[in-house]
Amino acid sequence: MASRRSPTARHRRLVAELNRLRENSGLSRVEVAERIGSTDTTVWRYETGLTRPRPSDVSALTDVYGVTGEARDSLIQMAVEARRRGWWHPHRQALKPGFDSYIGLEAEASLVRTYEPLVVPGLMQTEPYARAVIEATSIVQTPSEVEETVSVRISRQELLHRPGDPIHLVAVLDEAVVRRQIGGRDIMSEQLEHLVRLGGLPNVEIRIVPFSAGAHAAMDGKFCLLSFPDPEDPDLLYLEQAASGLVPDDPNQVHRYTSMFGSLCDMALDTETSVAFIAQMARRFSSR
Hints:
This protein has about 290 residues and is of the alpha/beta class.
């Protein structure tokens, strides 16, 4: 399914490299466009990510910027990989706008840090729980679209079990997540038992922010931070609303939410206590 060579992530890196190379060259977009026989609008679209350049376009740009050898080959290969379609591409119509891009970036991430105030994160949901959440929140989706969305959500979870290279997940959950009954007692009990099992994996950390912690900086809503294996790829922030998802292109925003996540971790129960609390809640839901 997913691999670390995600087209979306490759495109993000390519955009950053093209911007860096032009800035270092001292050339304007108009000057670059003249040298490759194109328009400044096209160069702008390459540099803003609105258009994915063909490998031949990138080859022409490397000639302008004087990039040779392995560096040139690497950029052209990025362009090849960026134009491929990820496994999620056929399902874009069933997803909220922007979420397909997030899936593509998540596929290449090495670390996911997520805060959820209301529901279990998608990477950790059982199929019945996921279906109950999607049915409740997807007011305009048809039954077939609901099932397609459920399938995509479950497919993403392979990242946690990727042989030899699983993604590392740190999930901070509000206490409400494990108390709110979604889909009935049996579904909720199964979901919480699943969380307990996930909490036993070496690449998964679960932390509960108890009600007793009081007010905190993340009360405005959920968010997710992605980190990548290559240090040249900066961390990324994903914010989700009811009808769309957003990836703010602002390092200050990333820094703010990184600090916010650290604050949440300071307020949360430790991993062992958190998992024990989840297990306790699972028993409550399973009792008749």
